[in-house]
Amino acid sequence: MNISPFIIYTILALSSVGILAAVILYFIAQRFKVEDDPKIDKIEELLPLANCGACGYPGCRAFAEALVKADDLNNLFCPVGGNDCMAAVAKALGHEHEKKEPLIAVVRCAGSHQKRPKTSQYDSAKTCAIQNYTYGSDTDCAYGCLGHGDCVTVCAFDAIQMDPQTGLPVVDEDKCTACGACVNACPKNIIELRKKGPKNRRIYVCCINEEKGALARKACQVACIGCGRCVKECPFDAIILKNNLAYIDFTKCKLCRKCVAVCPTQAIIECNFPKPNEAKNNSISNHTTVQ
Amino acid sequence: MKKTKQIKSFPQGGVHPPDFKLTDQKQIENMPLPEKVAIHISQHIGKPANPIVKVGDKVKTGQLIAKGDGFISTNYHASITGTVQKIEDVLDQTGYKNKAVIIKREGTTDDWIPEVDLTPAIIKDITYSSEEIRSKIYEAGIIGLGGAGFPSHVKLSVPDGKKIEFLLINGVECEPYLTSDYRLMLEKIEQLIVGIQIILKALDINRAIIGIEANKMDAILKLKEGAKDIPQIDVVALRVQYPQGGERQLVKALINREIPPPPKGLPIDAGCAVFNVGTVYAIYEAIQKNKPLIERIVTLTGQSLKNPSNFLVRIGTPIKDVIDQAGGLPDDSGKILSGGPMMGKALAKIEIPLAKTIGGLVIIPESQATRNEVLECIRCGKCVSVCPLGLEPYLIMALSQKGAFDRAEQEKILNCCECACCSYICPSNRPLLDYIRLGKTVVNQIKRTRDTK
Q1: Ranges of each domain in chain A
Q2: Among partner residues B369, B370, B441, which is closest to A133 by beta-carbon distance?
C-alpha cells in the first residue's frame, strides 16, 4: 500500500494538536471546576421538573438550590409536586415536612352567554388583556369573564379549557396543580386558588361583581347581589360581605351548605357534593354542578 | 434655478387617510339644553376633583361643583341649571365607571351665575397679569381640548430652569371626519386672536405660530387676515399628512425642534408650549367673559347619518341626545367613536356623557365597522415606513404579544404616540396598536415599580 506522506503528516499533526488541546483542557477544567453541591442534583430529581415557576423560582433547578440552602422548608413549596414531593424532599434533606392543604384554581364567574347577555361587540385582538385595557366589557358586568382564554394560553398543564357553550373557562380538577399561572394571567382577577377540600368538595361565591345588587342582577342572572342572607345563615362566620359582594373564607368554611340554599341568585356554588338520590356519582366536574 | 419653497411637515412617516369632512360647511349650532347631565370629575390628566355639592343642592349654570385637588387637577362646573340628583359612578368613554355629578335640569332657560358676561361683544383689552390669567384658567376648569386633557394652567406655569420661546397653536385637525376646530377657526377668528394674545401674555413671550393643514386654505387666509396687525402671530400652512397634529410632529414641523423622548417628553423641553385652538377659545371665554368651561364644539358625523353637524354641546350631555339632534342613530350603525377614526375609541353605550376631551363623534356603518381577518405578518415593512417616530411596530407588537416587555422597552415602546398609522397601513390587518398599547401599559407599570424600589 502506498500512502502519500502528506496524509501521514496531516494525520500526525492533527492528532498531536488534538492530544495537546485535550491535555490543556483537562487541566483547565480541573483548575476552574465549579463545585456543585451533589445534593442539588439529587433534590432536582425528586421535583416534577415542570419548570413552571409556581414555587416562585425561575425553574426546578433554582428551586432545588434554594431548598438545599434553606434552614427550614416552611416557606418553600412546590404546588405541582404537592405534599408527596415535598415530603420526599424533606426526608432527603433531613428536615421536618409540614403538610399543606392542596389548592385548586377556581373560576369565580358563572356569567355564561345565556345568563349574561352581550350589550356590545368587542372587535379587536382576541386577548383578555387587551380587552380589559381598552374596553371594560362587552356585557353590562365590568367584572366578569371576558372569555378570550388568556388563562388557557398560560396553563402549562393543559388543565383549563374554554367551554364553547358557556364561554367560560373550566378547570380540570385532576390536572390542575395550583401553580397560579392563570391567576396572574387573568386581568379581571377572577381566578382564585382555593382549598381543594375533602373529596374535592368545596363551596364558593361564583361572582366578583362589586356593583349594587340591582345593577349586578340586571347585568347577569347569577350575580352576587350582596343581599347578605348567606352571611346571616352561616353558623361559622365564614362569609364576609364587602362592597356588595359576599366572599367565603375557605379556612373557616365547614361545607355545611346552608348558604347555598339561601342564595337568591344561585351565586354560591357547591362542587362535587353528592346530589340527592345519586350519592355515588360524585365525580362531576366544576361547572356541570352549576347548571 | 430658484428652489421652490417646500410646505412644512414632519420629516418621516405618516399616512394620508381619505378625509371625509362631511361637516366642513355646517355652521356651529347650539344644542338644546339636555334634560340631565352627568359630569365626570376625572376627565383630565391628574388627580380627580372633589365634589363640593350635595345631593339635592340647587345649582346655577357655571357654578363650581367640583374643586381641583392640588396643582395638577382642575375644576368642574355645572353645565345646566337644576338640582343635583345623584353623585355616583357612571360609565365613561373608557368603558369603566367613574364618579360623576348628575344634575337634572329645572326650567327651560339657563340661570347663569352673575359674573359671566353673556353679551356678544368681543373684548380685546387684556387687563390681567400673567399670574391672574393662570389662576383664572385654573378656576375655569380648562383642560387641553385636543384630546389628552392636560390641565392648561400647568402648561402655562414654567418651572425654574426651563424656558419657553414659542407658543404653538394646533389647528391642524388631521383626523378624518372631524371639523370642530376648523369651524371654530372660521367663525371665531377675533376671539382666537385675543386668546392667543392672552396666552402670550401669561407666558411672557412674543412669538406664536398657528399651524393649519393646507387643505383648510380658507381658515389659513382668514386667520392671516385677522392677525395682520399683530406681528407676534404667524399662520403657517402644513402639508396634509396624518398625524400632523400630533404634538411631536407639530413641534418638528413648525420650529424644527425635537421633543426629547419619554420620560421627559413634554413640549416645554423643546422650549415651546402647544395649545389646541379649542383650548385657546375656552381661554378667551374664561378670561374675557368669566365663563367657565361648560360647553364645547362637537362634530357629530357619519356617512349614513341624516344630518351630520357641528354642535355646541354642554359638557355631560348624554351622547344619545346629541345623536338624536342630528337625526337619530342610523339603522346600519356598527360603531360609535369618540374622537376620530384613527385615534378614537369605540363607545360601549350611547348613554355615556360628553367629556371635555371629546371633539367629535363618528358613527361608522356596520359594513365598515368590523375588522378584517388577521393574517400573518409578511414582513413588508410598511408599518416601519409610516411610523412617524421611527419605531418598528411589527417588532414591538411581537414582543408585547410574547410578553418580552424588557426587550419592548429597549425597542422604545414608550416613545409610541399611538397615532395608529401602523394599524392603518398593515396589509395583513394585524392589530399592531392594540398590542403596543398593552405593552405600553405593562412597561409603564414595570417602570413605576422599579423606580419606587
Answers
A1: 38-93, 103-288
A2: B441
| Three cell numbers written together for B147 | 384630546
Mark A108-125 as b/e (b = at least 16 C-beta within 10 Å). Answer: bbbbbeebbeeebebbbb
**DSSP-derived pairing of the beta strands B272-276 and B233-238:** unpaired
Instruction: Report the C-alpha gap between B50 and B45 in whole angstroms.
Output: 14
Residue of B nearest to A139 (CA): B348
Instruction: Answer positive or negative: Cα dihedral of B281, B287, B288, B292.
Output: positive
How, if at all, do strands B333-338 and B272-276 pair? unpaired
Q: Which residues of A touch B364 (CB under 8 A)?
A: none
Q: Do B431 and A125 touch (CB under 8 A)?
A: yes
Burial B201-235 (b: 16+ CB within 10 A, else e): bbbebebbbbbbbbbbeebbebbbebbeeeeebbb
> What is the nearest CA distance from A150 to chain B, expressed in angstroms?
12
Which run of H or E residues covers position A83?
helix A82-93
Peptide bond into B243 cis (omega under 30): yes
A258 by Cβ neighbours in 10 Å (0-12 / 13-18 / 19+) ranks as middle
Q: What is the distance between the alpha carbons of residues A267 and A228, in angstroms, rounded to a whole number?
A: 12
CA angle B87, A143, A165 (to 5 degrees): 140
At A124 the pLDDT is: 82
**In CATH terms, is domain A103-288 a member of 3.30.70.20?**
yes
CA B66 – CA B7 distance, rounded (Å):
45
- In Å, how far are A58, A104, B95 from A182, measured between CA atoms? 17, 11, 24
> B371 and A135 in contact by Cβ < 8 A?
no
Helix%, strand%, coil% for chain B, nearest 5:
30, 20, 50
Q: Pairing between strand B58-59 and B82-91?
A: antiparallel
Cell, residue A51: 419548570
Quickly list H helices, A211-257.
213-219, 229-233
Closest CA to B254 of B156, B169, B197: B169
For residue B193, give Cα distances in angstroms to B93, B141, B210, B260.
32, 21, 10, 30
B96 contacts chain A (CB < 8 A): yes
Angle between helices B393-401 and B432-452 (to 10 degrees): 70
C-alpha cell at A55: 414555587
Which class does domain A38-93 fall in? mainly alpha
Write down the H helix ranges in B204-263: 217-226, 247-255
- Closest-approach residue (CA) in chain A for B350: A120
Instruction: Count other C-beta atoms under 10 Å from residue B330's C-beta.
Output: 17
Looking at residue A156, its pLDDT comes to: 87
Q: Which of B290, B363, B282, B270 is nearest to B315 (CA)?
A: B282
Q: Which pLDDT value is given to residue A281?
A: 45
Is the confidence metric ipTM above 0.85 for this complex? no
DSSP string, B17-41: -----TTTTPPEEEPPPPSEEEEES
Per-10-residue mean pLDDT, chain A, length 291 = 85 96 94 85 88 86 89 84 88 84 90 88 87 83 91 91 92 89 92 89 92 90 92 91 91 90 91 69 44 38
The half-sphere exposure of A112 on its side-chain side, counting CA atoms within 13 A, is 14
For an interface test with A, which of B96, B400, B405, B434 has the most A Cβ atoms less than 10 Å from its Cβ?
A: B434
Q: Give whole-number Cα distances, B116 to A91, B139, B293, in Å.
A: 82, 13, 12
C-alpha–C-alpha distance, residues B246 and B276, integer Å? 11
CA distance A17 to B286: 88
